[in-house]
UniProtKB/TrEMBL annotation:
<protein>
    <submittedName>
        <fullName>SDR family NAD(P)-dependent oxidoreductase</fullName>
    </submittedName>
</protein>
<dbReference type="Pfam" id="PF00106">
    <property type="entry name" value="adh_short"/>
</dbReference>
<dbReference type="InterPro" id="IPR002347">
    <property type="entry name" value="SDR_fam"/>
</dbReference>
<dbReference type="InterPro" id="IPR036291">
    <property type="entry name" value="NAD(P)-bd_dom_sf"/>
</dbReference>
Length: 218
């Protein structure tokens, strides 16, 4: 039976690169995002490359929606060996024109979805003493930005939250890690292409307890 990776926040960038990499390594791929038509297209594209994939529709900003998707996956496919939280939202706007309501709403995606995900899955992982729980973070977590404030604030909060969950899992075999990507994803960029970034996740996956990294700043 194939191992399972669930990618939350599916799309054409990093999630596609990760799906292709893990799919070629004999994983079955489960994609989660809000738009079913796009999920169907991504599953068909992966199938063309011989990759076994399926999907579940969820709004990660809505706890019940995310929980329903995860439960449906568990019932159909079993427990995922790897879960990647890759969801993000941003609003490009000068900080003096930005509204707090926008930042707050996008925090539900950038941070809240991950918080709810971990409260759902981490107790099981700790009980079973296993699990690879990964997060896509960004360079804006390390430095605020006056044009992408909602994203930089969200990523900073996400980084802190990941560290908190890592402390909760101390002393277990649960590997919680974040990949902090300090560049703009571009398929033509040697370092920041989805394919290259996916290799970093594969590196994290293959780390054992003795050499596990909590964060790769890339």
């Amino acid at each position: 039976m194939k191992k399972l990776i669930t990618i939350i926040g599916a799309g054409p960038g990093i999630s596609q690169g990760v799906a292709e990499k893990f799919g070629k390594e004999n994983f079955k791929i489960v994609l989660i995002s809000r738009t079913e038509s796009k999920l169907q297209e991504q599953v068909m594209e992966l199938a063309k490359n011989g990759i076994d994939a399926t999907y579940a529709v969820a709004d990660v900003a809505n706890q019940d929606s995310l929980k329903s998707a995860l439960l449906s996956i568990k019932e159909k496919e079993g427990h995922a060996e790897v879960i990647l939280y890759n969801a993000a939202a941003f609003s490009g706007m000068d900080i003096l024109d930005q509204k707090w309501e926008t930042i707050r709403e996008q925090m539900d995606i950038n941070v809240g979805g991950y918080f709810n995900l971990m409260k759902m899955v981490l107790p099981f992982c700790i009980k079973e003493n296993k699990g690879k729980l990964f997060v896509t973070n960004g360079g804006f977590a390390l430095s605020g930005d006056d044009q992408l404030t909602s994203l930089s604030v969200g990523k900073a909060a996400l980084r802190n939250l990941v560290q908190a969950f890592q402390k909760k899992a101390t002393g277990t075999n649960v590997h919680i890690a974040q990949l902090t990507v300090c560049g703009f994803v571009n398929p033509n960029d040697e370092k920041y292409s989805p394919k290259a970034i996916a290799e970093q996740y594969w590196k994290l996956y293959n780390q054992n307890n003795e050499n596990q990294e909590n964060e790769i700043i890339y």
